[in-house]
Write a structure and sequence with these properties.
- The complex is a heterodimer.
- Chain A is mostly helical.
- In chain A, about 40% of the residues lie in helices and about 10% in strands.
- The model of chain A has no long low-confidence stretch (mean pLDDT about 90).
- In chain B, strand 5 and strand 6 form a beta hairpin.
- The longest helix of chain B has 13 residues.
- Chain B has 13 helices and 51 strands.
- At the A-B interface, helix 1, strand 1, helix 2, helix 5 and strand 4 of A face strand 23, helix 11, strand 24, strand 25 and strand 26 of B.
- Strand 1 of chain A pairs antiparallel with strand 30 of chain B, so a sheet runs across the interface.
Chain lengths: ~475, ~1000
């Protein structure tokens, strides 16, 4: 009996020693912080600000879809039958609410990151560093909203449905869509707040004063505030890339003329932006989309972009294409992992030229257009265009310069034009091949599909979120 | 008979002590009640501790004197004791234990079947080891227990299976049951040698599983490994099997030969189908056409093969009074069917020891190590998959480059050259140059201390550990085709090494008080349990390799990724159990357990789980005398258990995570968490009847159950405006109900001296309904969830119901494909707006069952296991791809020839020009009902007269075949048992679709079992 009590006692004490296990119930992650203990030092804000740019580089945004779909739905490119036929429903305008392009998730995540920085910036001491972080956060917030607006709204019609401008930190935030005019006004106000705060450094991988002003020139142009567009464009100091270095801009060996690009380490980050256009091996290309024959044959032999953007590469069967090599890869590479160019001096010049045209200053517009053309054509003599010919020249240069950079659809909309593709020209380099199918040859300017649909998954969550007309 | 010291001593004693005591040998025959000799029965003289074993004919001789007590025992039979009097010739007939006296392991305790009030199925080791032992344990459970539905993941050797006990228990939190091996939680069951298993108990209802609290909602499978037996001399058992494995037959289609394919291309090209006009069948000259038609290259032969399956296993077990042991070593190899892939290998060893250290202390130690290696083929839906390539590569392409005469064209080194087909790919080259390997070393160990404090009070402490080292290597060699496509031209080749170190350690302590007052028997237990899981992961990538022969990353030029991480979670529990019975006739059991887990939100740390059950052993009542029931038990149970498997390690917390961009660190919110997060709750009630009749010839059990799962973990989607990084907040919101019937039967059809025939069957039904999902203003019961791949989850429907556009056939007037719109009218326009819920059609089977036939005649024995399922549906994208004219640049099925040609044609494929004919619809949705001959085992036990002369005890030779025959009348595709559609994608629920995933394999092995 004594032995039993003795044993009992030992067992009980062993059992009680295990009660220290209660502390083990509080497990914290080993790879993350709680929000309350972050956003305190300058280094925290540096990390958080970098996350703004990495967020922009998501696959449905600048990491892929944003730099391809606005061209895929237009006349700049044609689908290659030998490819995987990715994005075909976009090329053929068959997208609907439940097969929509959803970049709302990526964009609003970036906006949330910017809001965190703006909200917590009070933890930093006043000064240039704090101002710069705030400036960058405001600028990125404005950029993301403007991109949302261009994708899902008819920006030229101020009374049509815009996109909610989110400045609060609330994961459950819900709001119906305001008008385009209201959204644009918030975007411009954010950029105007950013401009004095942000530094005027010359880094190309982060927003700077040049970046803010370049973006303002774009936003004001879309908003038809031509004087403001010209004023903002005049504040940009970056020069247009020279003809000689231009091809290297696209292999990331030069950043000439670039104001803001999303800079990746191709071997580590390996974000294959160019995979939207093609995949390649040493024996040939697997093309998804290539330059349309109409586009490629419009490039004159004296245009540097004929060789910087385009190359006749064969596929494994020996077919030659006008392949899109703007995002082919860094020098010597074929993996499509290149930096995403967001703002360039060439676009600023085109914004200014177009704005000047619409204020009636045709001579000024021509001079601005020639500043770009002289750096692209050799030999070059100005065409001296006026009137309709001038605006068409501006539109042509914009089409070529900014092809496959996420502009074409939005430009066509702004100019009130639709999309028209050839009935006879196919995907091979000489125009032979399979032309666009009958239902994918023309889209009128007023067609509801000129604006992308709001993803049905969003409306299912918040039924008061208005869908675009006719979807 | 071994000459041991003991025997010598005994003989000496005998010789020297004849004067002192009237010693004699007691001898006789030990048989069963029916007269079958029980060879191997143990006869123990409890007074002298001398033990002998009955020989093959049941005869024994043991030395004993008058007054000694001799006990006779044999597994599965009631032991008997005889006090020696003056009769020294004693024949004993042992009575077999009925099923209701079988000992069942319930996790923290063992009970005999007559004491159990819960729904528990048991499976014995023989049923498992009849199968090809490279199959994982989860796979082996198919058809063995009613209500346990098993679907193989795919046919890759060593791959596991989806096990579902009583339907789908959860939407996001996983429906896999908890596996416990000797008291330790053990996820990866392909690391356990099936020969080591003594028994498997499946705890199906809350009354049995609630003792595991917040981990038990999906049922618990308890695996107990073999132990040595007291006073049994060492027995060595050796098993060796050798055989081959190949693919099971396809269902409902045949691929074209090269002349058929060329003809098809030509026909369609002439009809004006543009993609056909780019094909060689249309563009070739007559000579070229004939040359290509003659090639008819057999891609299945080139890329697939019959793989070897080898098993070698040896075990030694025995014991004395105070010390028992079981030792085993085994090796399993299954090459699989893909050429150049070495398949799956497992080596394992185990030592289980029981030692009675003191009268009151018994120590049990189990240690096992298993090492598995698997050579992985790319299981992905594109040309990189050997299965996809075997079926769809054009039959007029060859594996290696050949000239127009069919001769090999060698390169400048005299080597064969790979023929790159399609958009420039050769599977043979890829398998050689892009190897992928996975390996896992598992250490399972536990120490069990059982102390008998008083004759009524016992304390059992168990320390257990499950330690797994997993590693994976993936290499694309420099200069390989894949390197060309994805590699860095300046740094060719790329290697990934990743893996994890996983440790699960567990401490449990049960203090049990057992007493009887008159006919009232009861026991009360208290439980304490602590469990900690820690997982360390690593991943390394480098590029820039000089040669394909060297793959270690130390030779690489540039390290491109390096990452490590650490995850930990804990569980702390207290519990109490009560068992009561009156005279073994009226039983009552109750349990209560309180679990606190680190993964639950701070506001909901703890959960309480209870169960109660009762049973009535009707056969023991007086009024049952004279009726043919040997045992009859009515039982009912109800209880609550939980499921925490769906909650990530730190999911309840808000976190700022770190990343890297352009080689610099970034930080951003990764989740806003949910402090209210808790386990899913399962309320189950069960009513069952168990019986044994006709002198133990018929045994069976019938159960009806209803399981209500609430607080389902679902991602409540958030509007993207809020910027929630993953777009949703994990919340406990949904509800689901499963109910069904289970039947198990076992009938000895014939029992005579020479011939024994037994039939046993299991059958279970599942009726599942989702009742609530994430509520919202427009959908108070919850909106539907698109689960991917055509299945949806919606309140009022079965989980994972197909929602598809309905196919209406082909218009006989013009060959156009037709569908039904959502109102049921026929339309020629395909639109996803016409998707409708196909109530009752889901990938999950409504019922499944197994049938086993066993017969033995003299030395021969034959066992056949059938398994079948009914009520499930699956989309066969394989079939779509091989019939779709848009894939004319690949090989197609001959059924594609049957396309619409002229008005009036019916039962045809649509005309090729209508590309939307292959849009997802019910056109490729097939019933997956099937019956499979899961195992056929035919053996012969060599007569003892021949065997004993070589010193052996028992030798059996046999042929064992797995998955030899499948009957699937409705399915068109590779195999109706669909797990993952393809290895490298996980979309929706398993079984939803099949696209050229690795098919189920059959195997045939010759084996020999030797016992001595």
């Amino acid at each position: 009996m004594k032995k039993s009590i003795y044993l009992f006692g030992i067992l009980f004490s062993i059992a009680f020693s295990f009660t220290s296990c209660e502390d083990e119930l509080d497990q914290l992650p080993n790879n993350a912080f709680a929000p309350e203990s972050f956003y305190k030092t300058s280094q925290d804000f540096e990390f958080a600000t970098r996350a703004l740019y990495s967020g922009l580089f998501s696959g449905s945004y600048y990491g892929g879809s944003f730099l391809s779909r606005p061209d895929i739905v237009t006349d700049n490119v044609i689908v290659a039958q030998e490819g995987r036929k990715s994005n075909l429903s976009f090329y053929e305008w068959r997208y609907k609410a439940n097969s929509a392009w959803n970049m709302m998730g990526s964009a609003y995540v970036v906006i949330n990151r910017a809001n965190q920085i703006i909200d917590k910036a009070g933890n930093l001491p006043d000064g240039d560093a704090k101002n710069n972080f705030l400036g960058e956060a405001h600028a990125v917030r404005a950029l993301a909203h403007f991109d949302l607006l261009r994708v899902y709204s008819k920006v030229s019609d101020g009374s049509s449905l815009g996109m909610p401008y989110v400045t609060v930190l609330d994961p459950t935030y819900e709001a119906p869509r305001p008008t385009v005019a209201e959204t644009l006004s918030s975007i411009i106000s954010d950029l105007n707040d950013a401009e004095p705060l942000i530094g005027s450094g010359d880094t190309k991988s982060r927003f700077t004063k040049d970046g803010v002003n370049a973006l303002l020139s774009r936003v004001h142009l879309y908003n038809k505030d031509y004087a403001a567009a010209i004023a903002a464009a005049n504040k940009v100091t970056t020069e247009i890339a020279s003809r000689a270095t231009f091809p290297q801009v696209w292999t990331d060996s030069s950043a000439d003329g670039v104001i803001l690009k999303l800079d990746q380490n191709a071997s580590i980050d390996d974000i294959g932006v160019g995979i939207e256009w093609s995949q390649s091996s040493s024996s040939g290309i697997i093309p998804e989309y290539v330059w349309s024959y109409e586009f490629a044959s419009s490039l004159s032999a004296s245009d540097i972009r004929l060789t910087a953007y385009n190359d006749n590469i064969p596929d494994s069967k020996g077919n030659l294409y006008n392949a899109i090599i703007k995002m082919y890869g860094e020098a010597g590479q074929q993996n499509g992992s290149v930096d995403a160019k967001v703002l360039r001096a060439a676009e600023v010049a085109l914004n200014k030229a177009e704005a000047m045209y619409f204020t009636g200053d045709e001579a000024g517009a021509l001079a601005e257009l020639d500043k770009l053309r002289v750096k692209r054509y050799d030999p070059f003599t100005s065409g001296g265009e006026t009137g309709q010919a001038l605006i068409e020249a501006i539109q042509y240069e914009r089409r070529v310069e900014l092809a496959a950079e996420g502009h074409r659809l939005f430009d066509l909309r702004r100019w009130g034009l639709g999309v028209s593709r050839s009935e006879t020209e196919g995907e091979f380099f000489d125009g032979t091949g399979t032309p666009a199918i009958q239902t994918a040859r023309s889209l009128s300017a007023g067609d509801y599909r000129m604006v992308f649909p709001i993803p049905q998954s969003e409306i299912n969550i918040y039924t008061s979120f208005q869908q675009n007309p006719d979807y | 008979m071994k000459i041991t010291n003991y025997t010598i001593l005994l003989v000496t004693f005998l010789l020297s002590s004849t004067v002192l005591i009237a010693q004699n040998n007691v001898s006789g025959l030990v048989t069963s009640e029916e007269g079958i000799p029980l060879s191997g029965a143990t006869i123990l003289n409890t007074s002298t501790n001398d033990a002998v074993v009955a020989d093959f004919d049941g005869n024994y001789t043991i030395s004993a004197s008058s007054g000694d007590v001799v006990s006779y025992s044999y597994v599965g039979y009631e032991s008997q004791e005889v006090k020696i009097g003056s009769n020294f010739s004693i024949d004993i007939q042992l009575v077999s234990s009925t099923e209701l006296d079988e000992v069942v392991v319930l996790g923290f305790e063992k009970k005999t079947r007559s004491e159990i009030t819960a729904a528990v199925s048991t499976i014995n080791t023989q049923e498992l080891t009849n199968l090809n032992t490279s199959t994982s344990i989860s796979n082996m459970l198919q058809g063995k227990a009613a209500g346990v539905q098993v679907v193989a993941t795919n046919g890759k050797p060593g791959s596991g299976a989806y096990v579902r006990i009583r339907g789908i228990g959860s939407i996001t939190a996983g429906s896999a049951p908890l596996f416990i091996i000797d008291g330790v939680q053990a996820p990866g069951t392909q690391n356990l040698n099936p020969f080591d298993i003594e028994s498997v108990s499946v705890l199906k209802d809350a009354a049995s599983s609630a003792i595991y609290g917040s981990r038990a909602a999906n049922g618990v499978i308890i695996i107990t490994t073999k132990r040595g037996k007291k006073n049994k001399r060492a027995t060595v058992e050796f098993t060796s099997r050798f055989g081959y494995t190949s693919q099971t037959e396809e269902h409902g289609f045949r691929m074209m030969t090269s002349s058929e394919k060329l003809q098809y291309e030509r026909e369609l090209g002439l009809l004006g189908y543009v993609p056909a006009q780019a094909q060689l069948g249309y563009t070739s000259s007559l000579n070229e056409y004939n040359r290509l038609a003659a090639i008819n290259f057999n891609w299945k032969d080139a890329l697939l093969r019959d793989g070897e399956v080898v098993t070698n296993q040896i075990s030694v077990t025995g014991g004395e009074e105070n010390f028992q042991y079981y030792l085993s070593v085994s090796e399993d190899r299954n090459e699989g069917i893909i050429d150049q892939v070495t398949g799956f290998q497992r080596q394992s060893a185990r030592l289980n020891v029981d030692y009675q250290a003191k009268d009151w202390l018994n120590i049990g130690v189990n240690v096992s190590v298993a090492d598995t290696k698997s050579d992985e083929p790319r299981d992905r839906y594109n040309l990189q998959s050997p299965i996809y390539a075997a079926y769809t590569t054009l039959p007029y392409e060859t594996e290696y480059v050949r000239d127009n005469n069919g001769d090999l064209v060698l390169d400048e080194n005299g080597q064969k050259q790979y023929n790159f087909v399609g958009f420039g790919w050769s599977i043979t080259e890829a398998l050689a140059n892009n190897p992928e390997f996975e390996g896992n070393t598992t250490l399972l160990a536990n120490i069990n201390l059982e102390s008998t404090i008083t004759d009524k009070l016992t304390n059992t402490t168990n320390f257990g550990i499950n330690n797994q080292k997993f590693r994976r290597e993936y290499y694309y060699k420099p200069g390989s085709r894949l390197d060309d496509f994805v590699g860095d031209a300046n740094a060719p080749g790329g290697k990934t090494d990743n893996g994890s170190f996983f440790t699960d350690y567990n401490i449990s302590n049960v203090l049990k008080y057992k007493n009887s007052i008159g006919d009232h028997n009861f026991s009360v237990s208290g439980l304490f349990e602590f469990n900690k899981i820690s997982s360390r992961t690593y991943s390394l990538e480098s590029i820039g390799f000089a040669s394909g022969d060297l793959s270690v990353q130390s030779v690489a030029a540039e390290a491109t990724d390096a990452s490590t991480d650490l995850f930990e979670r804990t569980l702390l529990s207290y519990g109490g159990f009560l068992d009561y019975n009156f005279d073994g006739k009226y039983l009552f059991t109750s349990s209560l357990r309180y679990d606190q887990a680190s993964v639950f939100g701070k506001e909901n740390r703890g959960g309480t789980f209870w169960s109660t059950s009762a049973a009535w052993n009707i056969a023991r009542e007086d009024f049952m005398q004279g009726l043919p029931f040997d045992d009859l038990k009515l039982r009912a149970s109800a209880g609550v258990s939980g499921n925490q498997a769906g909650i990530g390690y730190y999911e309840s917390l808000a976190v700022i995570g770190f990343g890297s961009f352009n080689s610099q660190s970034t930080a951003a919110p990764t989740d806003n968490g949910n402090p209210k997060l808790k386990f899913e709750e399962n309320y189950t009630y069960d009513i069952g009847l168990e019986f044994t009749m006709f002198n133990d010839r018929l045994r069976g059990a019938i159960d009806y159950y209803k399981k209500v799962t609430s607080d389902l973990l679902l991602d409540r989607p958030l509007l993207s405006l809020g910027g929630e990084p993953d777009g949703s907040i994990l919340s406990n919101v949904g509800e689901m109900v499963n109910k069904g019937v289970e039947i198990e039967l076992d009938y000895d059809v014939l029992r005579s001296d020479d011939l024994y025939v037994n039939v046993s069957a299991t059958f279970g039904t599942v009726d599942n309904e989702v009742t609530k999902l994430v509520p919202s203003a427009s959908y108070p019961e919850g909106a539907e969830i698109d689960w991917g791949s055509g299945v949806y989850i919606k309140p009022g429907e079965e989980y994972a119901t197909f929602k598809l556009v309905r196919w209406a056939g082909v218009n006989p007037a013009n060959g156009q494909p037709l569908w039904y719109d959502k109102d049921g009218n026929i339309t020629a326009t395909y639109s996803t707006d016409d998707e409708v819920y196909l109530s009752g059609k889901s990938p999950l089977a409504d019922m499944d069952g197994g049938l086993n036939l066993f017969a033995s005649y003299k030395g021969f024995d034959l066992s056949a296991d059938f398994y079948g399922k009914a009520g499930g549906y699956s989309i066969s994208y394989n079939t779509r791809d091989i019939l779709d004219p848009a894939n004319i640049s690949d090989n197609m099925a001959v059924e594609a020839f049957n396309y619409w040609k002229r008005p009036g044609d019916v039962n045809v494929q649509p005309s090729a020009q209508y590309t939307d004919a292959s849009e997802t619809s019910t056109r490729y949705l097939y019933k997956t009902d099937y019956i499979r001959l899961r195992n056929l085992n035919f053996g012969y036990t060599i007569p003892s007269s021949i065997v004993e002369s070589s010193g052996l005890e028992n030798v059996r030779v046999y042929l064992t075949g797995q998955n030899l025959w499948t009957y699937a009348p409705h399915y068109v595709g590779l195999d109706p048992e669909v797990g993952v559609g393809v290895g490298e994608s996980s979309d929706g629920e398993f079984g939803t679709f099949s696209i050229f995933g690795i098919p189920i394999l059959k195997s045939l092995q010759f084996g020999i079992d030797i016992k001595f």
